[in-house]
Amino acid sequence: MTAASQTQSQPALQSVANVRLEWKPRDIENGHTHVDLRLVNTGQTPLEMRGWSLYLTSISGTEPSRLEDSAAITEVIGPLFRLRPQSGLPLLAPGASTTFKLDYGEAMILTDKAPTGPYIVYDDAPSKAVPVADYQVYSLNETLTPQDIYAQNEAITVVGSADFPPVFPSPLSYTYASGALSLRHGVHVEATSNLAPEAAFARHMFGTHVSPHGVPVRLSVGAVRGQTSAEAYHLDITPKGVRITGASAAGVYYGLQSLRDILSLGGDTLKAVQITDAPRFGYRGLMMDVARNFQTREKVFEVIDLMARYKLNTLHLHLTDDEGWRLEIPQLPELTSVGARRGVCEPGTCLPPAYGSGPDVNNPHGSGYFTVSDYIEILKYAHARHIEVIPEIEMPGHARAAIMAMAERSRRLRALGDPHADDYRLDDPGDASVYHSAQGFSDNVINPALPSTYRFVDAVIAELVALHRQAGVPLQTLHIGGDELADGAWEGSPLAKAAMASLPHADTGALWDHYYSQVIAKLASYGVKAAGWEELGERKARGANGGTQMAINPRFKGQVGNLFVWNNLGGSEDLAYRLANAGYDIVLSPATNLYFDMAYARDSHEYGHNWAAYTDLDAVFGFNPLHMVGTQSEGMTQLDTAGKTHLSGLEATLFSETVRDPQRIDYMLMPRLLALAERAWAPEPAWARTTDPASADILKAADWSSFANRVGKQILPSLDADMPDLAYRLPPPGLHRDGDRILVNSQLPGLTLRYTTDGHLPDATSPQVTGPIIEKGLITVAAFSRTGRSGRASSLTNP
User: Fold this and answer.
1) What is the mean pLDDT of residues 554-578?
2) Enzyme catalytic residues
3) Helix (H), strand (E) at residue 147
């Protein structure tokens, strides 16, 4: 069993608690994890075991219960739980400890499943909290062995750099020609005025090579032979210069990104080559969640740079959720003064702690938002890199931050006697509905029966439209959520019941349709298209057995833009195809392949979730958009010819429940984002077109080997040079004992591997692995980036 330390990074609100907390799993039995939560008195005086409660946030809820005679544990709201010692417990002497027995209803393999952000609240000061700074999380130490990793990596063969395509993602076509272009005398960039941003990017890319007397790099917009995509380009490098022709400015920009790839190979001489290229899919996106845990504008800029580098064109910005509202709306200041703050505070002034942000309202990930200026700068920054920002405002579910903020606005204005106090209220005070959302909330659904709901929606839309206009980037699409409406919502609201009675079908499904009809019409009045999660194209209805069931809802076909389909889990593997075949435009975001908040492997050391899958690099690379469902899958719908025309593209998704540290974003995104880029831009690979399974497997294995070699030998070294602070994941090496020697391999051939023989972690001065290791001892090997950063090590004894 190993321990991982979790320390509050923010200053304590009062003194730090004089206790140590240890979370230790004992075992996993019948799908349940039994855990010891040990509390140690580290102070100099006895600790009274009464008059206080311990709070923790956890993405995996413990079973609410009375813990024998020691304590009671209850779910407060969402991911926040409270453990309260029972009366009659004796004083805890200095140095003594007590242990609470917890039960979790799942296998807690990943350390990220453990509670985070613990703090103590005393009964006589309920608006104050004392952080528990000394907190140790232990794991069951379930890991992939070095031998397991070695076996997985054995499928990857060594591929020489000479066999790689010249640019990434793989281009549509390329042809090398005789001769080469010398850059020894510099380059000068020529472009028309409408390509001024692209010309500036080209000059920045060439840096000190820019000279008025250098060879020409000519940029122009024009037809690209044989291509219809507005993002197509033709790149021609000859001994006399470089010419990039794009079907649009975006095409020129992507041609420059390809030229950057060629330049990154080093040297002052470029091989003559002609490249004709265009994307496979028009939508190539990344969803970044800043609601659950907030990130700064500067971090968003870094993500945008990464996206642009690999020709992704859409940033889906998840701005609101139950746990935070992250965009300033000046007309409704409570959205950020209340909805963008998390911690322990006076009632009505912030949201409760969640996802490790702890009790301090100044924690930069629990609290924070984009000001008007921040958001405008994000829009401009993305637009300059030909990336569209699609903001997401969650509704009607996942809306607790907005609901609480508007309720506080109503309370404050009512106290002032303002007759307009309820103008933007989102909840029915008389609502007695009983429900429990997927994240544990019972009050997170906007009520569609209130006129104030639509006044609120209008105000938010109007502000977003205005912000985009100020940025010079008109709002084209607003993502309006639609996912995970909890069963039971609205059913106990007198106002909702009255509204349902007036509809053709007096049920919540009809009320859902009514609500979204109003929202979509409002967006259309601003010239904005609605997009949403897959549920926007489904209808929830009461089944014959009393439960709910989902079916394709044709109501909004042709009225909305893309539906983002995440659910490809048991029984819903074909959902995306059913929606597309029914006429909805879709973006594929399957949870098992493109949810980058999933852990890379079934390994206690890995970060993230595992509710959908473990998603290593090969799972992303091997995703086949047109054949998500096996042809032999009984009862499953295949994508038909008409349905294929409704497949807009692919999107990776990074929800942030387990992501606070900005470097964690780098780790979760990279190198998986490279595989997404390859699938979204590159032509359909031969293995995906082949109908013979055996031939397809052979072709896929070869393609995977080529990709892994490109990443390790070219792409990551180039990234180290241009973005040296990017903390991408370096995979642990595989080890195998073969007689009296240790064999070593890597998922990404080309990475530098270093080793020690005494069990100590390798560093930048350790010897490099150049072949089998014959030294004796505890052989410990780690991969290193070109900047000297190391990944997680693997160890194996050579006796």
Assistant:
1) 94
2) 484
3) helix 146-153
